[in-house]
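Dear colleagues,

As part of the handover before I leave the project, I'm documenting each prediction I ran so the next person doesn't have to rerun anything. This entry is a single chain, and its sequence is reproduced below.
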Amino acid sequence: MVGPYGDWLRFPYEQTENLHIIPEIDCCRIVTDHSTELLQRVPPTTSLLLRIGSIEPGALLLDACDAFEAGSASSDEAARAITKTGLLTEAIESCTEAATREFDVVMQKRLLRSASYGMHFSYKDPVERWMPMGGATTDVLTKKKKAHQQHLSEEEGEYPEEEDEDEEEDSPTRPSKTAMKFVAAAQKLRIINALRSPSVGFALTSSQYDAIGPNGVVARLVMMKRPALASSIAEYLGLEDNVRSFARSSKAAAFVSSVAATAAASGGRTDAEIAEIAIRILRDENFSMSTILEDKTSGSTTTTPSSTTNTTTLSSPATSNSVLRGSYAAVALAAHRAGKAGVANLLLLLETSVIDKVPALISIGSHADAASVAAMARDTDLIFLSLMEFEKYCMSNAADPNKGQH
């Protein structure tokens, strides 16, 4: 590898027949027969912090945090020295940014601890003692300073004029932008580290994650057959309702397909029980899949829904959230492809979206039900679609196409 200034490094790959180098936005992805690697130039933020003899504010804060963990009293003096220069916020943000660029988890924790240590000194000023960790927003800080000045005036015997009683009350104190960046960086690192796990194999850098976005990560995980992780990330980040519903429907479809593919995993389940578990996944009800499978295999019925519960849930489409419109139809199609026609029929009973329900009924071969649903909705387009698909079905199954038209 040749750098921008003519320096070069050699990376030997022995016992590798196929090797591909893929350019990325901030690195090169090396794909071999056995692994995937990322080759990246050291980010400028990391270089400024970790180079030998660095006097950058972030490097000084990192040294102060290391001294604090070592039990040295000089750590407090070093942190206060950074505060006096007015560069404490810059030091905190540089440590936070460098943590997101790191691949080593140990170094990530070290840099985040340094940023957290610096935030403890960002609200030590007596005037700003009301601020939370990392500081407060400007409007709240202005009001608090005004109240502090009024208190000092009263102690000196000067009483300012009372303000209008109708004046709005102080808004609640909120974290500063620095603190919010710290929390966002911690969330990003938690997700990126999970994606970099060898069991997932979806290695991303911080810049690539920002370019793709959380929604893109969820979509790619679903395409990689990782719907459980996609659903967990969507719930953890609190993404839009439609994104979370999409991830949960993919997870439910994967469960139905896996149960149908592996007879031992189903444990002799009925279609109603499989549909019930799929519905609970769609509705994001907390339960352990492994616990349910173990209890069913051992014959216990403590976590397995009873037949009464199944009947009540499956016959009450009003209990489903409007966000789930279309999710039941998607899972029903997956169940039909897996050979679980009974599960597909039960799930379609809860589908409230006519636009999704009619094509799903046509796909599973219930043309009469599709025409009935379209007629009840008084949708001429869906009625025409149902009739045309039924005619195609008759023509394909009839020995004589002319008879099929009649």
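The CA atoms of residues 42 and 101 lie 9 Å apart. Confidence is low (pLDDT under 50) at residues 125-131, 163-172, 290-320.

All the best with the project,
I.
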